[in-house]
From TrEMBL:
Ranges where the record places region Disordered: 282-308
InterPro entries with a match to the protein in the record: Cro/C1-type_HTH (IPR001387), Lambda_DNA-bd_dom_sf (IPR010982), MLTR_LBD (IPR041413)
Comp. bias (Polar residues): 286-300
Domain HTH cro/C1-type, chain residue ranges per copy: 12-84
Pfam families: HTH_31, MLTR_LBD
Protein's UniProt name: Helix-turn-helix protein
Gene Ontology MF term list: DNA binding
Top-rank taxon, per record: Bacteria
Length: 308
């Protein structure tokens, strides 16, 4: 485990150093440069550490960096918040839950109740291993019916990489999948002894070439906000804006809230909510028909942007 963390740290620092030009760092570039970005001695100078010490850090050799030194290196390499956390996690001794981790606490009743009262806003809760812990009906209608899956198969990242429906659903699938790999990289750096994360990584690296490629290139991502575009089999095209809120009591659960990005997407979400409610009602009444499982070639109306 320690050797792997050192490899990740070395790869991450080397890549970030190559991305910072001398001009950006305020250094006059002179002569022929054999490497892109900053040289090691330039990073050491700008961060106020010895060249030998920085070389040891970048090579993953034993050092004991202080918060101040890591902060100076983060500023020199122009790291964002997620990248800075990743650096800190890898450069310091491993902590966090290990193989005997009993799991995460249940989602608080107040959070569960809140997301079910949202009007026309899909919402769900993820754990640090991308576990889908809770959500509302509109989230299941937009993404996938996670409550219908086995408890050990309710994982957003596994679904995105292994279910062909996910690739069809996300218009920008590759971008979203790569970013979520970066989120897992950040979580793994903070929980290096978590055997469930390690097992998920092994599984996806075995089954997905794309995951294996992105995992090998450290690009840690935080969970903050963004935009996603969908091509939904029932209501057609829609765009949402999302916000993420990490619950502060243990920093292990994150609430995601989706909001329509435009009037057409708002109408599509309302149609999707109506479809989901009808599906649940008919299922409970025992009158569910194949029309409730529409596909893109269905002749049923599919919303303002998806009608064909």
């Amino acid at each position: 485990m320690a050797a792997r963390r050192n490899e990740l740290l070395s790869a991450f620092l080397t890549r970030k150093r190559a991305e910072v030009s001398p001009e950006t760092a305020g250094i006059e570039a002179t002569g022929t440069r054999r490497v892109p970005g900053l040289r090691r001695e330039e990073v050491a100078f700008l961060a106020g550490v010895s060249l030998d010490w920085y070389v040891r850090l970048e090579q993953g050799r034993p050092v004991t960096p202080s918060e101040q030194v890591l902060g100076a290196i983060a500023r020199t390499l122009r790291l964002d918040e997620a990248e800075r956390d990743y650096l800190y996690n890898l450069a310091r001794p491993a902590t966090g839950p290990g193989a005997g981790d009993p799991g995460l606490p249940a989602v608080r009743p107040g959070i569960r109740k809140m997301i079910r009262t949202f009007d026309n806003q899909p919402a769900f809760v993820l754990g640090p291993r991308m576990e889908v812990l809770d959500g509302n009906d509109l989230a299941w209608a937009l993404l996938a019916d996670f409550p219908a899956r086995a408890p050990d198969d309710r994982n957003l990242l596994r679904w995105i990489f292994t279910d062909p429906a996910a690739r069809d659903l996300y218009i920008d699938w590759a971008q979203i999948a790569a970013e979520l790999v970066g989120v897992l990289q950040l979580e793994a750096s903070a929980r290096p002894r978590d055997q469930q994360i390690a097992a998920l990584v092994r599984e996806l690296a075995t089954t997905s070439t794309e995951f294996r490629t992105w995992w090998a290139r450290p690009a840690p991502q935080g969970r903050t906000s963004g935009t996603k575009r969908f091509q939904h089999p029932v209501v057609g095209a829609l765009t949402i804006e999302w916000e993420a809120f990490t619950l502060q009591e243990d920093q292990t659960q994150t609430v995601f809230v989706y909001t329509a990005a435009d009037p057409d997407s708002d109408a599509a979400l309302r149609m999707l909510a109506s479809w989901r409610a009808t599906t649940i009602r008919d299922s409970e009444a025992g009158t569910l028909t194949p029309q409730h499982h529409l596909r893109p070639n269905s002749t049923e109306p599919r919303g303002p942007q998806g009608a064909e």
